[in-house]
Amino acid sequence: VSDHRDDDLVARAVARDRDAFAALLHRYDARLRGLAYKLLGGDRHAMDDALQEAYLRAYRALPGFRRDADVGSWLYRIVYNACIDELRRARLRPAPVDAEARADLASAGADPATVVSDRDATVRALRALPDDQRVTLVLVDGEGFDNVTAARILDVAPGTVGSRLSRARATVRRILEEVER
Amino acid sequence: MTDRDPVVSRALDDLAVPDHAPGFWARLDQALDAEPAAGAAGATPAAGPTAPPAAPPGADVVDLTGRGAPRRTGHPLRILAGMAAAVAAVVAAVAWAVGGGDEPRLVPADRGAGTVARPPSSSSGSDATVPAATAASAPETTATIPGTTTPTASDPAVAGAVPAVEAFLDALGRGDVTAAHDVLGVRSEMYLESQAGSAAGVDEFLAGAAASYGAWASSPDATFTPIPLGPGDCVVVVRGTVTREGATREAVLALPVRHAESAGFWAVEPWAVDPATGARLEIGGDLVPSAEGSVEGGSVPREGILSATVGAEGTFWFALGDTRLTEVPTLDGTATWTVPISTPTGSRVLLTAFRNDTTFVASAFLVTVT
Questions:
Q1: What sign results for the dihedral spanned by CA atoms B212, B217, B221, B226?
Q2: Which residues of B fall within a CB distance of 8 Å from A84?
Q3: CB of A106 less than 8 A from some CB of B
Q4: Which of A34, A79, A118, B195 has a 20 to 30 Å separation from B317 between CA atoms?
């Protein structure tokens, strides 16, 4: 099944072929996990909850999927929406970056601990951001959308994206630099 | 073209994303097992979705949220009409095809273009009736879709807009709130949540909309016309016979639809209103309301002046049984537009749309041009 083309899998999934649907999900799961994980501030449990919800929504919505659309983009949109819902539901708020945590990270050794600390630093930086700043940052610096496109996705003015990015980047850079010291 | 910050983007790229927790796929399998069998979730769409809440029969005021109780102004020249919302926009055109008789019919988008009957011209000298101050500082611009063909669902600019509206209306018609939510735009979702006070409240709100929008799902003759408002933005006009509360009548509906760049996906924005300010579209001027005091069924003379406001600054677009939308920026919150003298008399669809940074609403009413 995994060797089939997307449109073949979609056609079978629409007909409620669960194997085909699973193959589609596995094909895009890595990218979707990345999106969800970053949007949700590195919360693995929230990521799984959002993806469970998103994949269920996708299954329900499959009968209405237009065959000429890109299934990857379609799933991406559903996951994005599910993450926004998850943020609102869970009222996820940035966890303060406390001094103890910083000290732990700063004292982390080189390889392989450095890898861990770098990841943690990024996660902590993401969590330090308000939701709107984090989502904007992930779309532009994580997913590679330009400011205008991000503005359209977020339904805000491009200037708003710029100001959110500016604040978010300053916060992230500060935390990353603190960890590097 | 990317606007990525090199340091931050590198950190995000290097971020190790964990795999799912053990049991994730098994849990999903169980959830899918609990889903209705084929045919339930994927029920064949009803004949033709439709559904507008804009102006319930007899109502002259409809809250833009779609759930506010209609109220009357008492003033014949100020009529409040309910709307929906979204963002963005530029200009577009409403394409009409003469479908027998003298009444124009919106061409079903999914059936391709039909013959387009276009008035010989639009505005022109009739602008002289616009108050000088308004004419000077709030210039009108008129745009028409290139050529004379009706926009169709296959046009790149609007492909996907009609299916999104169909999916939304059909989902509400069959009571599938989840499916309706899936094609609901972010702006509308945020507004509904702000009004409902919780994410769960959004679904409750959507369930409540089933009686209005959902009624279009069983319309036997609904037609859909996508009207592009620039890249990624569209208003879909739906026209057909609708039965609500035991009464069957011809009705029209305008729904803003927006393209999500990230997903090649169109989302319906019936309530894209700024939660901080709300919005309510008022249509007035020379429009004479119906006997019930409603815009629907009202009349307006050729060369008459229509005014519109949502209580905010932005840009309006007007069209009245024409192939053109006329763009008019607001002045002190109000936009005025002169009905072209070339407008054919008889029953016509009055389409109005408004957009600014936070609000995008659209409405459609059947009115008589005299």
A1: positive
A2: 186, 189
A3: no
A4: B195
